[in-house]
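SAMPLE LOG
Freezer: B-3
Tube label: C17
Construct: single chain, 115 aa
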Amino acid sequence: MTSKVKKRVVLPTRPEPPTIEQILEDIQGALPSDPVFLPVEETSEGSLKSPPPGCEEDHRAEPGQEKQYQQSRSFVLLNQKLKEVQGHLRDKCDKLRQAGDTLDHKIAEIKEKAL
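STRUCTURE (predicted):
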């Protein structure tokens, strides 16, 4: 009697996900004609325009998709602004701490001289 031995298949390790910088670099390096980055435009009747030349399939967005996209986009922009403001506030906080330390040091010097 022979037994069938199943060999374990060793899968390759999953690569690390790309960093934000790598994603932004890919987006910035994309051609303007890349259909992935072309916005969906609505006509005055509310229907979507036909896809750009070169796209063989007709990709139509559902009515709520554009709104969700715009909300997502505004969220990303606001998040970027918050990170910038956070950095400015951190810098100002550090400066205030340094000024407070300097003030404490000078107060201690004045008290020493007064005694």
